[in-house]
Amino acid sequence: MLLTPKIESFVMHCGEMGSRWGFNRTIGQIMGLLLMSEQPLSAVDLSETLNISRGNVSMAIKELQSWRLVSVIHKPGDRKDYYAPAGDIWQLANRVFEERRKREMDPTLSLLRASIIDEPANAEEAYAQDKMAEIHDLLETITVWASELQSMSPEKLTTLMKLGSGVVKVLDFKDKVLKSGNGN
């Protein structure tokens, strides 16, 4: 695949962002390239286009498969494996959120649950358990909310996101109305 400057810029940016999304640079670049390619790409295509070793491509593809972000495609008469994104942008984003929840949030929630269930041994532990309970409740709320978002259609999610700060304004207005109704 020939990279135009615009596509190359995007692919390189995906590599830079990879570490912030829970991937390494190579995985980010490969995912970016696959997203920008109309046709599935082979490991050789990926290696040559990105100027990275076949071994790195192979390891990156395995990681992307473990995240369920790429699909293997076979072409009749061709023994090579070809790779393409495993769904549209919304499906891929949902998988990343789901995997990050499994890898990051769930273990943290488990640790917090185990830590707050026992009786504290002293005042310091009691204070620490109170803080852990607050963290647990926050993470649990975020997890439930994220799960609800993931079950929404892309159209509903887009509408919700477009509402943005408008929702906050409605909530602020509701608070003002409630306060004025209480004689405050």
UniProtKB/TrEMBL annotation:
SUPFAM superfamilies the UniProt entry points to: Winged helix' DNA-binding domain
CDD domains associated with the record: HTH_ARSR (cd00090)
Keywords: DNA-binding, Transcription, Transcription regulation
Membrane spanning residue stretches: none
Molecular functions (GO terms): DNA binding; DNA-binding transcription factor activity
InterPro entries xrefs: ArsR-like_HTH, HTH-GbsR_regulator, HTH_MarR-typ, MJ1563, WH-like_DNA-bd_sf, WH_DNA-bd_sf
Domain HTH marR-type, first and last residues per copy: 29-80
Family of the protein in this entry: Belongs to the GbsR family.
PANTHER family referenced in this protein's UniProt entry, alphabetically: HTH-TYPE TRANSCRIPTIONAL REGULATOR MJ1563-RELATED
Protein name stated in the entry: HTH-type transcriptional regulator
Native species: Pseudoalteromonas piratica
